[in-house]
Specification:
about 45% strand, about 170 residues, 10-stranded antiparallel β-sheet, alpha+beta, disordered N terminus
């Protein structure tokens, strides 16, 4: 009797696996929130050398705070843009984000393009970068990018951003 019940349970479960694929609705947000946060992983490949890091970014208007954390949380760097300039680990530096990243890790990504990519689903060529969203996710019934690939047209730089959480913050 138990075997018949288990067989019936197994067969009923098989019928449930034939679900239709998930179709995400069109992106409901067509404006870029003035305040938002995102988390994930970033990987850069330059001259066949791979570098990975966790990231946590918060934008407020045109300014941002980016925290890059090493593997297993061993060390982090906090990069903050505000009206006074660019700060790295609470020290004002005289370069911009692109120059600093190239000097420190040998590559950069167009950080100021992130809002357009995430909230306007904008794929394009910007500042010598080919930007392509290759995978999506649904968060609170809104379609957001999950995997963004950036390839530089003139330099051997490939960047992969994997977004795990995106939060537009309402005022």
């Amino acid at each position: 009797m138990i075997r018949i019940w288990l067989l019936a349970l197994l067969l009923s479960g098989c019928g449930m696996t034939l679900n239709k694929p998930t179709i995400y609705p069109a992106n409901v947000i067509d404006i870029i929130p003035s305040v938002w946060q995102a988390k994930g992983r970033i990987g850069g490949v330059v001259d066949q050398k791979v570098q990975n890091s966790g990231f946590d970014i918060a934008f407020k208007g045109q300014f941002y705070k980016l925290t890059l954390s090493a593997v297993l949380g061993l060390g982090e760097v906090v990069i903050e843009s505000n009206s006074k300039g660019l700060w790295v680990d609470k020290k004002l530096i005289s370069t911009n984000f692109k120059q600093w990243m190239i000097g420190e890790v040998g590559w950069y990504f167009p950080i100021l393009e992130l809002p357009k990519i995430i909230f306007k689903d904008k794929e394009n060529i910007q500042d010598n970068w080919v930007i392509k969203v290759t995978r999506y996710q649904q968060i609170n019934n809104i379609k957001y990018p999950k995997l963004i690939r950036l390839n530089h047209l003139k330099k051997p730089i490939k960047i992969k951003l994997m977004l795990t959480d995106i939060k537009p913050i309402k005022k």
